[in-house]
């Protein structure tokens, strides 16, 4: 078992994907990135729930039991080998098919699982992040909003901009200029005692940790989270800002352009709650 | 040389894609589908021009010479084997890279070429097409409009709807309800003697045959093509409708829902012109 990276395709160890594959050809598929820690997959139910929504939205045959089985088998293998904390990515493509956009009559989804060492202790909160603003924006596509499909060029281009400006993360807006997310995470803004997170009805990904904050972590602190349309000005005026990501947990934000934040109390409290919530 | 389907990866025959690959992971790449006919690739310059635009838009390293070389080598092989008329798809992904959206510092694009028999005589015009209307719409994304990137779920879902309603092609609208294209081709409408094609500044793909119609075929018949915002009502009211596609050429439309067309003169004339324009 290589601890660096390992790949399974349709249940077998190996890193050679048989072509054609509609995941490569058209971004025709979905994925989830799970945190494997201390021998277990964290919040696996939330990931599988989003995946199931995605499979349904894209019209895949019901394949969740098969996916869950393969993910569980890999996790069991990792546990037996005392694998260090890792990112486990499961990719479901619509598999092979004839030339052209139309899916084949009989779809055989392909399941690719890859594991890579995390390389840090997720329970120790990340240092506060410096944010920049991406010029690439989320496209407007209500039908695909929320799910984690494979067609992710916008986030790739945003992450590329992040590298260029040497920021820790980068804020992505929608076509109307409203704040949506960072390139790999969901944003939260504390404004006058009210916790807000961007509404994701026309773009973006509904993060598993976003849901966790809204449904469990914030309520545990007596806070309700409001899904809102938030402007860049509101982001800049917020009292505290942080973002969520499955591998990072909750990370405080210390700057966005000229604006700086010293206050990270809520994010710190939520991250403590987060470390207690093994689902 | 199998005449059915053959695949080359980075210049070598073979159909096993080494993972990770950012094309599969994020739809991070581009493609072109060329018509190989009578021993040559048709309109290859137009395809390579669009590909070059796409490479630049996505921030790929300049790799067109290398791509062109591999495409040319495959075409030469096909010619030497007297390959029948075929579709040659070239896929460029951003290649391997570490986990996460951000591209690696050094990008090594991967070039996949696949060839599949066409199975019909493209010079013989297709029978007039029955069109339906897709419920899935194009997302609004000006930055990626026009280029042929790998993130193509919308067209996949439209093509899936087409199969379900047993139409020959399916009309896709944008978020505002304006007519954009069919699932795999560009639309043209003749309205009161004026030829129109949808503006593609916020979504859609600028087809090579669309450009050919606009720049050479229509002018040869004394017609100027106007890029317009076109409503469904205008589509229904048009005097003649057809669509263009690299493998099909120009195909007349005989119905869209209740609306029927018997008139296909312009499309027939343009297709005759098209068969004369070997570029």
Features of the shown structure:
homodimer, 279 residues, alpha+beta, D-amino Acid Aminotransferase, Chain A, domain 1, D-amino Acid Aminotransferase, Chain A, domain 2, nine-stranded mixed sheet, six-stranded antiparallel sheet, 7 helices, 29% helix
Describe the structure.
2 copies of one chain form a homodimer. With 279 residues, chain A is of the alpha+beta class. Chain A has 7 helices and 16 strands. Chain A folds into 2 domains: 5-117, 2-Layer Sandwich (D-amino Acid Aminotransferase, Chain A, domain 1); 129-276, D-amino Acid Aminotransferase, subunit A, domain 2 (D-amino Acid Aminotransferase, Chain A, domain 2), CATH 3.20.10. Helices cover 29% and strands 29% of the residues of chain A. In chain A, strands 8, 9, 10, 11, 12, 13, 14, 15 and 16 form a 9-stranded mixed beta sheet that branches. In chain A, strands 2-1-7-6-4-5 form a 6-stranded antiparallel beta sheet. In chain A, strand 12, helix 5 and strand 13 form a beta-alpha-beta unit. Chain A starts with a strand and ends with a helix. Chains A and B meet through strand 1, strand 3, helix 1, strand 6 and strand 7 of A and strand 1, strand 3, helix 1, strand 6 and strand 7 of B.
């Amino acid at each position: 078992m290589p601890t660096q990276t390992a790949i399974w395709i349709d249940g077998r160890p190996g890193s050679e994907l048989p072509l054609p594959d509609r995941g490569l050809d058209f971004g025709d598929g979905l994925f989830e990135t799970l945190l494997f820690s201390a021998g277990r997959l964290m919040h696996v139910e939330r990931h599988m729930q989003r995946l199931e929504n995605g499979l349904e939205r894209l019209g895949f045959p019901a394949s969740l039991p098969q996916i869950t089985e393969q993910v569980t088998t890999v996790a069991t293998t990792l546990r037996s080998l005392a694998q260090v904390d890792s990112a486990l990515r499961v990719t479901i493509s619509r598999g092979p098919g004839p030339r052209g956009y139309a899916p084949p009559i009989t779809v055989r989804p392909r399941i690719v699982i890859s594991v890579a060492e995390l390389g840090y202790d997720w329970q120790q909160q990340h240092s506060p992040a410096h944010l920049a603003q991406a010029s690439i924006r989320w496209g407007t596509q209500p039908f695909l909003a929320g799910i984690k499909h494979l067609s992710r060029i916008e986030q790739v281009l945003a992450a590329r901009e992040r590298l260029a400006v040497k920021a820790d993360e980068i804020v992505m807006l929608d076509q109307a200029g409203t704040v949506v997310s960072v390139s790999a995470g969901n944003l939260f803004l504390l404004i006058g005692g009210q916790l807000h997170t961007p509404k994701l009805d026309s773009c973006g990904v509904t993060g598993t940790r976003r849901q966790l904050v809204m449904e469990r972590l914030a309520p545990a602190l007596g806070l309700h989270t409001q899904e809102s349309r938030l402007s860049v000005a509101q982001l800049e005026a917020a009292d505290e800002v942080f973002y969520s990501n499955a591998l990072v947990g909750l990370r405080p934000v210390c700057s966005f352009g000229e604006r700086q934040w010293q206050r990270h109390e809520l994010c710190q409290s939520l991250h403590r709650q987060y470390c207690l919530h093994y689902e």
